[in-house]
Amino acid sequence: MSGVGDGTRIDEIRGAAHTGTGNQYNFHGFDPFRTARPKADPWRVAQTQPRWLENRFVPPAGFGEAAGRLAEPGSTLLLAGPPGSGRRTAAVMLLHRLGGDDKGFIETSFSKEKDDLSEPKEGERLLVDLTGTSEEAYPEAQELLYSFWGKVDAAGARLIAVLPFEDEDLLHPRLRQLVAHIGRPRESAVLRRHLVGEQVPFDPVELQAMDAQEQLKAFAMRDFQRLARLVTQARSRDASGGIGAWLQQAFSALGDRSADVARDVAALASGPQRALLLTVAMMHGGPADAVFHHTDELLRLVEHTQDERPLLERADLAERLKALPVDVEDSGGLIRFKPLAYDAAVRAHFWTYLPSLRGRFGEWVQEVIRAPHPMFGLEERTRLVSRFAEQSLRIGEWQRLQFLVEKWAAANQRRGGEAMAVLEAGLAHERYGAAFRAWVYDQSIKESPEPGLVQVLARACAEVMVRTHPDQALVRLHHLARVTAVSGPADARDALFDLVGRDRRLYTKLLVRLGNAPRAVRIGDAPPATVSNAGIFLDLIGSLPESIAPEAGESGWRTALAASPVTRWGPVAGRWLSVARAAPAARRERLLKVLVQAADKRPAVLSRLYLVGYEWAAGGGQLPEEVGTRDEVARRFWQLIDLEQGIEPMGPLRMRPSEERIP
Fold first, then answer.
1. DSSP 524-583
2. 373-409 burial code (b ≥16 CB/10 A, e <16)
3. pLDDT at 209 over 70
4. Helix, strand, coil content of the chain in percent (nearest 5)
5. Which residue has the higher pLDDT, 148 or 651?
6. DSSP strand pairing (158-162 vs 76-80)
């Protein structure tokens, strides 16, 4: 929003806006387990990933034996295999085939944060991926794994831990009995399954005649997906080439191209040409005008000698591009390298062999984000920072990325897309993902996080972390919602409610977390965290799903009744009574008892509950498929309150609506 003369211009609306006169009232509600969600659903993406893998998976040697050992409830399996054999994929498929399409498994991790460690429940299938664990941290991870083993057995759950090392000498002797070894799947079969999955036509006889087995052995199983997609790209460039030509291009693109790039860089005699090469690689697929503009900015930041010639005497873009293996589309003016995936090889070369300029490259990316070319939009900038993050993670500069996320998100909310792209790259990284999840946790528990950072962190939890670590996403969203509950942005709360609205297990877990806040003797004595948890709880149960056990909400009600005024919890308690009225008799009784017992025998709270019951009974109205009347439910509610205070009912309580109801 900015001033315009004596008035105001609204550039962007992020919430409810008032455009007329008079008062405006905004009401926000929560409807759990709703089925219609117009935006993309990362939770559904996570649930469908095993089905995607099923169409491309080739069981390795030892897979059947591992499946047999995991068949009994309470089983724990430690999966070992050579690097690149697809251990994680095999673990995912073992758990997926145990439960089928409709029942997902839970991925957990041995985080230093106690919040992240959940007790296994009966029937749960758990995955722990230890492949990113260093040799120094491996002993501590084994201790946690050993303690978890007993809990899994007691709960009747199932657990697979993917080990980082194939050598059992590094494993504690008491855990070796749990190890199952897998081999490497047949590479040719994996390739065929991926080509079919990408809908690439091929002649099996021609594919077999290529005898590419030795080349395929050089790739890890995680590379086959990219290999198939590169084949798809090669086909889109030359549809008549055939599987042999497409596959050879893909092999070249995935192979070691460092020597080719080093030769091409050495052939470029001037600094401006090399700067143009890097800019094309970083902005690959972007507008040529933007590439030309930001190349000059890169030259300035690396303190290259400025060209003093007049502008019309300098080489134009077409002339400068002649020395590079690039094409510029006539239609859209987009610039691309001719060799397949050559841009990634160029980026890796500059980050590897020019270490003294890495800091300047980072400054250049920030400058592009701060003042981009008009044709270089958000989508192009997001690709740019993703490529920058990829190289920074490759050389281990992950902490610098965390600094940039905080800086970009907090300084200007309009840079949230770029900050999100960096954070997504970090969270998805095989080696540093755990470090980024820990960093998000540390940011979420700060007392006053910047609103822009809250927005980015909430999105990262709801859209990225939820795909692999939904429980950890829940923990971080809860902390963000708690610290911003009073005056902060609603992004975290909305994302939290959306997350638990998709999964009843997470809904129940959040109810329990909200009820674990410290108790307060009087409302004014409640610490801020308790007040925030109470408010979140009351918003959350505004609509209670039938499948949630009432007992899961008792501790939350206890916190809400102790930390909130009756004006805050009274209407929600009335809603609870309405749900009880529509429930079967046994469930109705449990719902009423939960609310009464949460008062902890406090006379003042029980008296207020009594009045809430009167006001609710006088409210009238009917619910669909009503089971009991308001009078009947209210009478039983009052009887339970009397019993809680040690007052035995003298007889059935009767109400005369015209005389006893409070208007």
1. GG--HHHHHHHHHHHHHTTS--TTS-GGGGHHHHHHHHHHS-HHHHHHHHHHHHHHHHHS
2. beebeeebbbbbbebbbebbbeeebbeebbebbbebb
3. yes
4. 60, 5, 35
5. 148
6. parallel
Q: Are 408 and 450 in contact (CB under 8 A)?
A: no
Residue 6 CB: number of other CB atoms within 10 A? 5
- Structure tokens, 343: 């841009």
Please give the DSSP secondary-structure letter assigned to residue 490.
Answer: S
If you write DSSP's letter for every residue of 238-255 in order, what string do you get?
Answer: -TTSHHHHHHHHHHHHHS
H helical segments located in 484-521: 491-500, 504-515
Per the CB < 8 A criterion, the answer to whether 259 and 318 are in contact is: no
Tokens standing for residue 404: 């940039």
| β-bridge partners, 108 | 128
**Average pLDDT of span 547-552:** 71
| Residue 21: predicted pLDDT | 37
Distance of CA 95 to the CA centre of its chain: 21
Closest CA to 230 of 363, 342, 68: 342
Average pLDDT, the chain: 82
Decide if 578 contacts 616 (C-beta within 8 A).
Answer: yes
Question: Please, what is the Cα angle at 620 between 617 and 626, to 5 degrees?
Answer: 90
Distance between CA atoms of residues 368 and 381, nearest Å: 8
- For residues 106 and 129, what is the distance between their CA atoms, to the nearest angstrom? 11
